[in-house]
């Protein structure tokens, strides 16, 4: 469908623009302001220029060391959970029952972890994993595995990763399931006639059709795991030591714990910039995929041509009716 | 042909994996604290409702649920009402900076809450909204409004353009067309978008905790603070956790067929 050019559409977008600008641009300006200054309390501020940024990117300073270490941990965490959740989500989506009441039941159970407040997710895994009162911790220890996420780094990491897999794999699975459902039955019949193997069907039909939703899944999972805060904070508190301190946890520690406004603001800006860049890459890939798809659809002979749809005068949005 | 060998087993194991921790939480909420600490029991041997009773009778507990619901509902109403016209504009028109604006919205959905915690605290203290449901509701708009715009844009694009044109030819003014024709047509989409706004506002803790202190404190924050103050009252904590799952579990049933398309931002 061709869109018409109409600048008055801005009036329709204006409310969204104002609301989001109020909660995004204004606070960001405060952050930029703080990032250039130092404070010793009492609302006294001193100009510090780009000092914080220099310190932030220099691993030999305290601030830089902490930031880069937490950034490394966070990237590693994001990669690990993507490597687990995406394949697992696809497998679960492929395992969905075909019809009947079980479909609805599976969907509801799958979606359940997504609707639990994030700190309760933490609480659930805390209660589940503790060696003294938790089923998981108790069973593992009874089986002879010395498991204690409070004192052992590796156990803490495993707990946080398993928790994230528990929490978010359903999202990937639900997205893939939606993609799979959009595949017409005729494709499978054609594959059957050709005698295609199960793997060939997956590779030639199902995976390409899931491309788009998988991209969204990867984007959402990367972003949300990159800014994860509440769940690990509740379970491990960033510990033992600093072993599960991710960027957001470090940031909140500096900003609200030590009230080191300048450092926190500089960290925020760099953090935001990384997110913005990754977001932009995904957005470009996504829109390009959309364009390709459109071109493909248009070049198919079956698509009926719609001439001059854009040239038709559209009476929408007359000047005085634009915004009531 | 559609599914893989052993799918029942895989699905069953995965569902058990999902349900087991939740079962443990429910199980614990019905146990007495002495049973929790002293023995390992797979089901409550001396079932008790004492934790639930405490939550429903102690105002400092149940007011948390009311506070949470207040800002969640406020946020959902604000998000949907500003997002609807914008979704229509993005779906139907091309205008100066539309793509940039769309990307800007996307980037705000992805912005880490931790970055905004402190500036929000300053901002809402300055304008006197700190510790009110409004502060949290407005703060949550930063990720919910973009989300609502995307979901609704997908649904509006599903409405054939001819319907708009016919309505305008029939002499409908724009606002009347919007309310009388478009909104009923995308009612299910509005439902899905509202569900997602509800959900993301309901599960968020960091901003909600930072922007409230006494009067508007959400249940999630009450849970974390009580634990640190009075030692570990595991049973009470578990009961409060179970009660936060219930609203989500209830609404999920109504949107079960749309969950996936909503997560795909209306683009499956």
TrEMBL record, chain A:
<dbReference type="InterPro" id="IPR035906">
    <property type="entry name" value="MetI-like_sf"/>
</dbReference>
<keyword id="KW-0812">Transmembrane</keyword>
<dbReference type="InterPro" id="IPR000515">
    <property type="entry name" value="MetI-like"/>
</dbReference>
<keyword id="KW-0472">Membrane</keyword>
<dbReference type="Pfam" id="PF00528">
    <property type="entry name" value="BPD_transp_1"/>
</dbReference>
<dbReference type="GO" id="GO:0005886">
    <property type="term" value="C:plasma membrane"/>
</dbReference>
<feature type="transmembrane region" description="Helical">
    <location>
        <begin position="264"/>
        <end position="285"/>
    </location>
</feature>
<feature type="transmembrane region" description="Helical">
    <location>
        <begin position="75"/>
        <end position="95"/>
    </location>
</feature>
<keyword id="KW-0813">Transport</keyword>
<feature type="compositionally biased region" description="Low complexity">
    <location>
        <begin position="298"/>
        <end position="317"/>
    </location>
</feature>
<protein>
    <submittedName>
        <fullName>Sugar ABC transporter permease</fullName>
    </submittedName>
</protein>
<feature type="domain" description="ABC transmembrane type-1">
    <location>
        <begin position="71"/>
        <end position="282"/>
    </location>
</feature>
<feature type="transmembrane region" description="Helical">
    <location>
        <begin position="101"/>
        <end position="121"/>
    </location>
</feature>
<feature type="transmembrane region" description="Helical">
    <location>
        <begin position="213"/>
        <end position="230"/>
    </location>
</feature>
<comment type="similarity">
    <text>Belongs to the binding-protein-dependent transport system permease family.</text>
</comment>
<keyword id="KW-1133">Transmembrane helix</keyword>
<feature type="transmembrane region" description="Helical">
    <location>
        <begin position="12"/>
        <end position="34"/>
    </location>
</feature>
<dbReference type="GO" id="GO:0055085">
    <property type="term" value="P:transmembrane transport"/>
</dbReference>
<feature type="region of interest" description="Disordered">
    <location>
        <begin position="297"/>
        <end position="324"/>
    </location>
</feature>
<dbReference type="InterPro" id="IPR052730">
    <property type="entry name" value="Sugar_ABC_transporter"/>
</dbReference>
<feature type="transmembrane region" description="Helical">
    <location>
        <begin position="156"/>
        <end position="180"/>
    </location>
</feature>
TrEMBL record, chain B:
<feature type="transmembrane region" description="Helical">
    <location>
        <begin position="134"/>
        <end position="156"/>
    </location>
</feature>
<protein>
    <submittedName>
        <fullName>Carbohydrate ABC transporter permease</fullName>
    </submittedName>
</protein>
<dbReference type="Pfam" id="PF00528">
    <property type="entry name" value="BPD_transp_1"/>
</dbReference>
<feature type="transmembrane region" description="Helical">
    <location>
        <begin position="102"/>
        <end position="122"/>
    </location>
</feature>
<dbReference type="InterPro" id="IPR035906">
    <property type="entry name" value="MetI-like_sf"/>
</dbReference>
<dbReference type="InterPro" id="IPR050901">
    <property type="entry name" value="BP-dep_ABC_trans_perm"/>
</dbReference>
<dbReference type="InterPro" id="IPR000515">
    <property type="entry name" value="MetI-like"/>
</dbReference>
<dbReference type="GO" id="GO:0055085">
    <property type="term" value="P:transmembrane transport"/>
</dbReference>
<feature type="transmembrane region" description="Helical">
    <location>
        <begin position="234"/>
        <end position="255"/>
    </location>
</feature>
<feature type="domain" description="ABC transmembrane type-1">
    <location>
        <begin position="65"/>
        <end position="255"/>
    </location>
</feature>
<feature type="transmembrane region" description="Helical">
    <location>
        <begin position="69"/>
        <end position="90"/>
    </location>
</feature>
<keyword id="KW-0813">Transport</keyword>
<feature type="transmembrane region" description="Helical">
    <location>
        <begin position="9"/>
        <end position="26"/>
    </location>
</feature>
<keyword id="KW-0812">Transmembrane</keyword>
<keyword id="KW-0472">Membrane</keyword>
<keyword id="KW-1133">Transmembrane helix</keyword>
<dbReference type="GO" id="GO:0005886">
    <property type="term" value="C:plasma membrane"/>
</dbReference>
<keyword id="KW-1003">Cell membrane</keyword>
<feature type="transmembrane region" description="Helical">
    <location>
        <begin position="177"/>
        <end position="203"/>
    </location>
</feature>
<comment type="similarity">
    <text>Belongs to the binding-protein-dependent transport system permease family.</text>
</comment>
């Amino acid at each position: 469908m061709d869109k018409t050019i109409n600048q008055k559409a801005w009036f329709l977008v204006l409310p969204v623009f104002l609301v989001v600008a109020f909660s995004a641009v204004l606070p960001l300006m405060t952050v930029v302001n703080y990032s250039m200054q130092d404070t010793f309390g009492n609302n006294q501020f001193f100009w510090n220029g780009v000092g914080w940024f220099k310190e932030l990117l220099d691993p030999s300073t305290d601030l830089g060391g902490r930031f880069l270490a937490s950034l490394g941990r966070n990237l590693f965490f994001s990669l690990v959970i993507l490597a687990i959740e995406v394949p697992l989500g696809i497998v679960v989506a492929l395992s969905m029952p075909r019809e009947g009441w079980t479909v609805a039941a599976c969907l509801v159970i799958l979606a359940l972890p997504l609707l639990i407040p994030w700190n309760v997710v933490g609480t659930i895994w805390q209660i589940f994993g503790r060696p003294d009162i938790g089923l998981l911790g108790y069973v593992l220890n009874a089986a002879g595995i010395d498991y204690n996420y409070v004192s052992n780094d590796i156990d803490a990491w495993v707990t946080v990763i398993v928790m994230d897999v528990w929490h978010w794999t359903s999202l990937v699975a639900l997205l893939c399931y939606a993609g799979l459902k959009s595949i017409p039955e005729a494709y499978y019949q054609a594959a059957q006639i050709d005698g295609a193997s199960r793997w060939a069907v997956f590779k030639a039909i199902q995976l390409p059709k899931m491309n788009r939703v998988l991209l969204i899944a990867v984007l959402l999972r990367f972003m949300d795991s990159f800014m994860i805060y509440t769940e690990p904070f509740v379970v491990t508190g960033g510990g033992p030591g600093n072993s599960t301190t991710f960027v957001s946890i470090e940031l909140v520690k500096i900003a609200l714990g030590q009230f080191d406004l300048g450092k926190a603001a500089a960290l925020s800006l760099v953090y935001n910039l990384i997110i913005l860049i990754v977001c932009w890459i995904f957005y470009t890939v996504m829109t390009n995929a959309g364009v390709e798809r459109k071109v493909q659809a248009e070049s198919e002979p079956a698509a009926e041509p719609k001439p001059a749809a854009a040239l038709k005068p559209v009476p929408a949005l007359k000047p005085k009716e634009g915004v009531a | 042909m559609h599914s893989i060998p052993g799918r029942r087993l895989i699905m069953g194991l995965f569902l058990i994996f999902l349900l087991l921790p939740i079962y443990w939480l429910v199980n614990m909420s019905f146990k007495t604290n002495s049973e929790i600490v002293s023995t390992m029991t797979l089901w409550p041997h001396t079932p008790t409702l004492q934790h639930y009773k405490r939550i429903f009778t102690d105002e400092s507990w149940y007011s948390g649920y009311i506070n949470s619901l207040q800002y969640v509902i406020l946020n959902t109403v604000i998000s949907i009402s500003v997002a609807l016209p914008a979704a229509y504009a993005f779906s139907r028109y091309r205008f100066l900076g539309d793509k940039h604006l769309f990307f800007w919205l996307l980037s705000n959905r992805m912005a880490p809450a931790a970055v905004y915690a402190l500036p929000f605290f300053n901002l809402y203290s300055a304008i006197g909204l700190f510790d009110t449901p409004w502060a949290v509701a407005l703060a949550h708009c930063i990720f919910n409004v973009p989300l609502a715009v995307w979901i609704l844009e997908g649904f509006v694009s599903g409405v054939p353009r001819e319907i708009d044109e016919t309505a305008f030819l029939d002499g409908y003014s724009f606002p009347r067309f919007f309310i009388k024709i478009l909104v009923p047509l995308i009612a299910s989409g509005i439902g899905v978008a509202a569900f997602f706004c509800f959900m993301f506002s309901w599960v968020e803790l960091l901003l909600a905790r930072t922007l409230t202190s006494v009067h508007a404190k959400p249940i999630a924050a009450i849970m974390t603070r009580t634990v640190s103050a009075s030692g570990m009252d595991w049973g009470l904590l578990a009961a409060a956790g179970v009660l936060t799952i219930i609203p989500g579990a209830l609404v999920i049933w109504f949107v079960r067929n749309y969950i996936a398309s909503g997560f795909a931002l209306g683009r499956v």
